[in-house]
Amino acid sequence: MCGFRFKQFAVEQDDVAMKVGTDGVLLGAWAKCEGARRILDIGTGTGVIALQMAQRNTTAQVQAVEIDQAAARRARANFDMSPWAERLQVVQTAVQEFRCDEPYDLIISNPPYFIDSLLSPDGRRSTARHTADLSFEELDAAVCRMLGDDGRFAIVLPTEEFARYYALSRLHLVRKCEVRFVEGGRVRRIMAEFARESRGVVMAENLAIESLVRGEFTAEYRALTKDFYLKF
Q: What is the total count of domains within the chain?
């Protein structure tokens, strides 16, 4: 097994196209999940974000949707190994086809975002990395269909792809975090939360992962991820 160990759970990922990455872990640590009763993770992959949600919110029912059969099977196994197996569920289907019994208080996604690049010869990796099977328009439609009136949608994307999604979304931006890989560097990722109604001023945040000292993580990054990473 090619596993990734966190403080309260483990993720096996040898048979999954997309492995645990910084984007997903950051989003799972940053998104506001307090008070949410029902949470949905779109494109769960290994299940890492859903597991983070279950760890952070000790009462929420967390559902996950995954189109790839092998990834859905692996996510289910990772859920079963966790302390929160009874609150975690994965459904193997395209989110466009997924139907929920009642709206969600929080929907969260680290979605595919390569739009203009060449498709990988590995079909499963292409599905995980490219928008061919889940366009931004389809993602927004699915979220708008399933999000509760007072719910939030949390997403992480590279800066250019975020601008594309933001331009077409029917939801309102309420919170945004610009992520730099190194202090003083250019913004490389955007974490954002959307709601059905505007909240007025958008809450703006910034996060750098590494300090100017090579290999040294910033205090802010450590504080955000300390409940998950063993190294912190």
A: 1
Q: Could you read off the pLDDT of 99-108 as tens digits, one per residue? A: 999 999 999 9
Residues 6 or more apart from 84 whose CB is under 8 A from it? Answer: 51, 54, 55, 62
pTM score, whole prediction: 0.91
193 in a domain, yes or no? no
CB atoms within 10 A of CB 184: 8
Q: How far is CA 85 from the centre of its chain?
A: 19
Q: Are 144 and 152 in contact (CB under 8 A)?
A: no
Q: How far is CA 205 from CA 70, 176, 185, 217, in A?
A: 36, 6, 15, 18
SS3 at position 202:
coil
Q: Supply the range of the domain harboring residue 19.
A: 3-152+205-225
Burial of 168 (0-12, 13-18, 19+ CB in 10 A): exposed
CATH of the domain at 63: 3.40.50.150
Provide the 3-class DSSP secondary structure of residue 98.
Answer: coil
Partners of residue 176 on adjacent β-strands:
192, 204
Token pair for 58: 């000790």
Q: Is the pLDDT at 180 greater than 60, yes or no?
A: yes
